[in-house]
Amino acid sequence: MKRLLILLSILLSFALQSQQVLPLNEKFYLDSLQNITKNSAVNTSKASAYFLLSNYYRNSDSLLSKKHLEIGKTFIKNDAFLTAKYDYYEGQYYLDRNKEKAAAFYQKAIKVLSKLKTRESDFYQALAWYGYGVSQKDKEGYPFLVKIVLEKCIPLIKKYGNSRNLGFAYTQLAVILTYNAQLDKAQNYNAQALEILEKGYPKSPELFFTYLNTASNFCYQAKGNEAKKYLDKAEKLIIPYPESSSNSFYYYSKTLYFITKQENLQALPTIEKGLAYTKKFNQNLQAQMFYFNKYDILKKLKRYREAKDVLENILAEKSLVLDLNNRKTIYKQLSALNEEMGNAKEALVWEQRYSKLNDSLSSANVRLEINKLETKFNTAEKERKIATLNAEKNQKDLEVNKKNSYLWGLSLVLLLLVSLLLFLFVIFRKNKKINEQRINDIKQKEELSLTRAILDGEERERERIARDLHDGLGGMLAGVKINFSTWSSNHLHPEKDQEFYKILGKLDNSVSELRHIARNLMPESLINFGLETALNDLCEFYSRKDLDIDFQTIDIKKNLPLPIQLNIYRIVQELLANAIKHAEASNILLQCSQSTENFLITIEDNGKGFDKNIEQTTKSMGLRNLKNRVNYLKGTMEISSDTQGTTINIELSIDGE
Fold first, then answer.
1. Cα–Cα dist 278/287, whole Å
2. 64-112 pLDDT tens trace
3. How many angstroms separate the CA atoms of 285 and 506, rounded?
4. Which CATH number is 528-653's, of 3.30.950.30, 3.40.50.720, 3.40.50.620, 3.30.565.10?
5. 84: Cβ–Cβ under 8 A, 6 or more apart, which residues?
6. Comparing C-alpha atoms, which of 578, 529, 506, 522 is closest to residue 141?
């Protein structure tokens, strides 16, 4: 099962790029398009046919794809819809070559299509939004892509009722959810797609790919028998078309099925059949996916030399490793493989490459967040300067008014003297209130800045310690473990020297524990999967036989800024630690919910309680740090504690952060 999940990132990188759905009768499809380009007298038909031919060849023959695109452009003749279609297919052409360029063309198409309001324009607008989401995946992450599909693509298609396009949109969403290990949700969308396509489009290519995606989903759940049902249905659709390039996708899904059933010897000839199709149709990325499966099987069969050759060929070919996450996975596999073969030095080299690339990817995410924070800070600084200038202008205006009033008072002498004194008194009181308010605002800003600096410094120190543990001590222990493994395989006997191997196992556990501590200092699940998943992992970490933690969530969004998510995570971490360590609770209820402007945290335990004023009587920093983080998010905290247990309610402001 773990090996199947390793392939998920590679599978998705291809699935997202291959969003074009070709008819299973591919030859008839191509002949029809070419016939239109030669015989049709209608410019609209000719342009559309050339665009579709460009899309067909974009992954297999880039020169021919670009040629068809440019020929199609000559038939546009000031037609707004055709212009938008050209921009969309231009985005398709650049999607795998230059993502920023592709994104610009998709947005250009969306701008025109959004004004046309026809069924076809809405369909192409949905496609353009999907392409834009894919082009921004590496920069914005998968939650952004899911948001695009749910809020842009599906609503545009769904307003025209059930259609093959809606069915396939559900299937694509299921693929993304499968990659993020949300297999049940993915299966739900696959089921919706099947309900539409089986009823209305029983022989469509969309249904064929939905069958394959459903089978793959069951494979990742280790449900081979369920996967076989849908694989057989897909086979019935593809059998009449042995010349279709879609056969390579069928054999790929069949390979996953054999791997799930642990029928490795049957999987190898299936891979060779799939490779034959990939070579015939220049499906380079698909071919590399087959090779990765071949490596996985050869490793299981302990044919290490052949497995190593396959992985090194994948790196040399480069199609698959353009995605840095795929490259990282392959580095890790090469390290493990060389360790199995007793090549300690080479194993350590690949492990170092893996760690360096992994850290580089993490740093890129951090830089992205820093840039966002910097932009936000600069905006706030400009607004502050504007407010200061306005205040100075108001003050000068006020001084002019006072002088004029004084002159008028002198001219009216005694008659207006009382009125003048009264006016000056009112002004004085007003200025005093304004100054007092300004002083309070400055104090609040200074307190907030101090809290921000303390919390930011704390998080930087956690990150530094985690990095030192992971890269320094972790790397050294990993090297020691690999060297011991290599030495023992040549000098010791597994049965006679069991005590040594027990010690070696403890060393391996120590490396894992060290990396677990590093992840706890800077939680990877928070960065990769969001707040809800990170909090769930935190509850599972603290749970044990004599402690039951009931974690409940309501509407936690994944688009919260990372600094807010991190502070909420630290607040909950402190609450749980206090309940377990100090209150000695055996039952804990943790509820987290989110509204538009607020985030609510409630924790209840059956512990021995504590004095709410403990921070004033002891040197403990726990409750004080907790209050600092609550104040940082402009929140409030209520504590109710006695010998029967403790209840803490926290309300945080997340609007405008």
1. 6
2. 999 999 999 999 988 999 999 999 999 999 988 899 999 999 999 999 9
3. 41
4. 3.30.565.10
5. 108, 109, 112, 113, 116, 121, 124
6. 529
